[in-house]
Amino acid sequence: GLVEVNPAEDDQRRRIVSLTGNGRRLVDRAKRDIWPSIENAVADLCADLSGPLLGQLAAIEDRLAETPLHRRAERTP
Questions:
Q1: 17 - beta bridge partners?
Q2: Does this model's pTM top 0.85?
Q3: Separation between Cα atoms, residue 20 and residue 38, nearest integer Å
Q4: Cα–Cα distance measured from residue 61 to residue 59, given in angstroms and rounded to the nearest whole number
Q5: Non-local CB neighbours of 30 within 8 Å, separated by 6+ positions
Q6: For the residues 47-73, what does the mean pLDDT come to?
């Protein structure tokens, strides 16, 4: 699995969720292979925004409705 769940040492009602070795490797791979494309897609999405915050958020929503983030990330090197 990617995560493991263990009881907290100080309180058996709490559960500690942590990544397994496989989970950490997957996160490392995502950081290397996926996140740069997402970062570039978000930068492109927000590049020319200005004005009031609510207007910017509306523009982002419109742009994402037109082309979802995963599609933008696919076409961004």
A1: 5
A2: no
A3: 24
A4: 5
A5: none
A6: 96
Q: Which residues contact 37 (CB under 8 A, 6 or more apart)?
A: 73, 74, 76, 77
Can you spell out the DSSP letters for 3-16?
EEEEE-SS-TT-EE
The residue to which tokens 């696919």 are assigned:
74
SS3 2: coil
Contacts 24+ apart (CB under 8 A), 8-13: none
pLDDT average, residue stretch 67-73: 94
pLDDT for the residue 17: 98
pLDDT at 72 over 80: yes
